[in-house]
């Protein structure tokens, strides 16, 4: 089992920055891929960025503004969000994939609201 706890969400003005954190605990050695997803109001959940080993993948809608990183020593995933836009408003959730089990783990989500 893996537990994920997000933090760092909040209210920010357009053009501002936020850094989300996702602390992982439990059987973290099984994790091969970690990712950030978001679900805007009234819309479906979408992939924002993913990281596996040294490789990252970022959605076109946030490319150049968001950066995903992982500190393995701290078992923490980050999402640095710059130049935020009102359309970035969403609940952001952390995800971890353990292929051995296999199992998909989710955090509780953190709200990000960008005002215009």
How would you describe the overall organization of this protein?
The chain has 116 residues and is mainly beta. Helices cover 0% and strands 59% of the residues. It has no helices and eleven strands. It has strands at 2-7, 10-13, 18-26, 33-39, 46-52, 55-58, 66-71, 76-81, 90-98, 103-106, 110-115. Strands 2, 4, 5, 6, 9, 10 and 11 form a seven-stranded mixed β-sheet that branches. The chain has a four-stranded antiparallel β-sheet with strand order 1-3-8-7, with no helix packed on it. The radius of gyration is 14 Å and the shape is globular. The chain starts with a strand and ends with a strand. The mean pLDDT is 96.
Short account of what is shown:
The protein is mostly beta strands.
From the spread of the alpha carbons, the general shape counts as globular
First-residue to last-residue Cα separation: 40 Å
**Chain-averaged pLDDT:** 96
Uncertain spans, ≥5 residues at pLDDT below 50?
A: none
Count of alpha and pi helical runs:
0
Write down the Rg. Answer: 14 Å
Biggest sheet features: 7 strands, mixed
Total beta strands = 11
Strand content bin: over 45%
Q: Helix- and strand-based class? A: mainly beta
Order of helices and strands: EEEEEEEEEEE
What share of residues is helical?
under 10%
């Amino acid at each position: 089992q893996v537990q994920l706890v997000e933090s760092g969400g909040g209210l920010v003005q357009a053009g501002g920055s936020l850094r989300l954190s996702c602390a992982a605990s439990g059987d973290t050695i099984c994790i091969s891929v970690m990712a950030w997803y978001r679900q805007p109001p009234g819309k479906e959940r979408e992939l924002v960025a993913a990281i596996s080993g040294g490789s990252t993948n970022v959605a076109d809608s946030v490319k150049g503004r968001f950066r995903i990183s992982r500190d393995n020593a701290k078992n923490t995933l980050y999402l640095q969000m710059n130049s935020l836009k009102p359309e970035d408003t969403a609940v952001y959730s952390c995800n971890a994939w353990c292929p051995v089990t296999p199992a998909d783990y989710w955090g509780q989500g953190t709200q990000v609201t960008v005002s215009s």
